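Re: the pair you flagged

First of the two:
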Amino acid sequence: MLYYREAVVVSVKNLSGIVSINRDGSWVCEGDHRHRSRQYPDPVAEAKKQASILEAYLEQRGVALPEGYFSYKVILPNPKFSSIYSSNFPPEVITFDQWTLLKPEQKSMLSGWIKGAFRGGKKEMQESIHQQLNFIFSTAPIWDRLEVKGNKYVLGEFLEFKGKQEDTQALRPIKRSKVSRLVIQKTSMFGLAPSRLQVLYCPRDYRSEGTSTSSEWKEVTVRSSTEVLFQPQDSNKIRKFKLSSILSMQLSA
């Protein structure tokens, strides 16, 4: 998140119960809603690693950031969170109790991080960095996203379509370089009738920030039994989703 003259990586952990820190930095949560002990990797180390990865990525994309531009925070917003020897927690950790004790201006600063506010500092330099970061973040690779029935979302990587040859042939033009979003317009109650896919064709060429692109919606009609092969994040198992169960799919850059 961007705020004043710095960028902050914010990690939010919804932990409840009594938490202590082991010598190796890992956290142990006792008496959470599952009523059992559970160990978590050091959230502060994870946030620090994410900040360093992001900083390295921006440097690779050609952004010259001021020294000390990146920092990181771990927010623990659950009021049912408590700790043993809280003084052992690193200063980057902000618990619910600490949040309630913060002065209004400090809360404003932290909420500014979370909301992505960006203002102040040397105006010309800040605007230049802001423009560069906005462009890079808008073209950075992210997870693909499936929206399925039941108000559920799956993040991961879209692989391909599977089904009848004429359907996969009709869907062949749907490529990551051309398509940003698919919306399933209509299926029958039992998923037997054809599905109308409304496809947003958005040509992508990120070699130049000034490149102009035009977008247009097109429709493709295929069988509802056509499947989407999708690799969920943090999983080695490929899942299959029928079009009849999908509301929309968004493809990353």
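Second of the two:
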Amino acid sequence: MDEKIKYEMEFPIHASPQLLYQYISTPSGLSEWFAENVNSRGELFKFIWDGVEEQAKLVSKKSGERIKFKWLADDNPSYYFEIKIQVDEITKDVSIIVTDFSEADEVEEAKMLWENQISDLKQVLGSA
């Protein structure tokens, strides 16, 4: 299997970090923009798109700041995706930093998918 490539994307977003954290860390928040349906039982999250279910394990989280998941279907332990809330100390501008991994020939497609997801999040937040 090919090595996956790590990439990071930053999205400015007009919302409070506390509100954003609810949308990135809870099943109900994630259901609003990330997947059609999200369920969790402890550290196990089920994401459902078009009837297809993907499971991810909650690897770590820091309240109000970030959440990191690992797809169970991906057996390489070093691959994950993380959504981090960053606040500029001077301007107080809020951004979301997404870190993810993708096959080399799918990076652009994966980035477009994240752009669409974050666009949906902005619409839900009313900050589009």
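The beta strands are 5-12, 37-41, 44-49, 52-62, 66-71, 81-87, 94-102.

-B.
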